[in-house]
Amino acid sequence: ANNIRMIGYHSEPERLISLADVCVLTSMREGLPRVMMQYLAGGRASVVSHLPGVEEVVRHGVNGIVTPAEDVGAAAAAVAGLLENQQHRTQLADGAKRTDLSSWGLDAMCESVEQIYQSVLEPAPSAARPNEARIRDRLAGQTFGLHGF
Predict the structure, then answer these.
(1) How far lies 142's CA from each of 9, 37, 84, 147, in Å?
(2) Inter-axis angle of helices 86-97 and 72-84, to 10 degrees?
(3) Domain-embedded: residue 57
(4) How many domains does the chain have?
(5) Confidence at residue 33, expressed as pLDDT on a 0 to 100 scale
(6) Can you tell me the distance from the alpha carbon of 105 to that of 103, in angstroms, rounded to the nearest whole number?
(7) For residue 57, what are the CA distances in angstroms to 8, 86, 102, 117, 131?
(8) For labelling, which of 45, 61, 70, 110 has a CA lying 20 to 30 Å from the CA of 85?
(9) Buried/exposed 106-120: b ≥16 CB within 10 Å, e otherwise
(10) What is the domain range of residue 80?
(11) What is the pLDDT of residues 115-146, one digit of tens each?
(12) Which pLDDT score, from 0 to 100, does residue 88 have?
């Protein structure tokens, strides 16, 4: 109780992360949480739940420890093990510092999302033209009183 503080929302999480010996995320369901990138960018050993996409950034035993999402006991054991083993904490912290997070920055993430939207909105080269264009072509030259159609 004297070593753990549950503080809730903080406007400068990077300051808190820099003070931590071990960072922990024990979510059971969540999209890829950005806090994991903050842990890695802060160069901290971390214990995180296995969530969809976690393997994209956290490599178990290299830059963090990944535990089953619904196994709080495994997460607690991993945290206790890291607190007792300075060498392992340092190894994971070094791995976190070496993690390439360039593809997870705001600009890269926005560009990726935009590319996804564009790929859905634009037809594939071999696909038929969108319905609106086909309708315009069929109606070209015909008058139905639909000016500007």
Answers:
(1) 63, 58, 81, 11
(2) 100
(3) yes
(4) 1
(5) 78
(6) 6
(7) 24, 23, 11, 23, 41
(8) 70
(9) eeeeeeeeeeeeeee
(10) 13-100
(11) 888 887 876 555 555 566 655 555 554 444 43
(12) 97
Flag whether 92 is in a domain: yes
Per-residue confidence (pLDDT) for residue 43, from 0 to 100 = 95
| Rounded Cα gap, residues 86 and 81, in angstroms | 9
Is 50 exposed, middle or buried (CB count within 10 Å of its CB: 0-12, 13-18, 19+)? middle
- Phi/psi for 46 (5° steps) reads -145, 155
CATH code at 28? 3.40.50.2000
133: in domain: no
Burial 27-38 (b: 16+ CB within 10 A, else e): eeeeeebebbbb
Spatial contact of 17 and 36, defined as CB atoms under 8 Å apart: no
**Nearest Cα residue to 40 out of 85, 88, 104:** 104
Residue ranges, the chain, pLDDT below 70: 123-149
Residue with tokens 């739940």: 49
Flag whether 121 is in a domain.
no
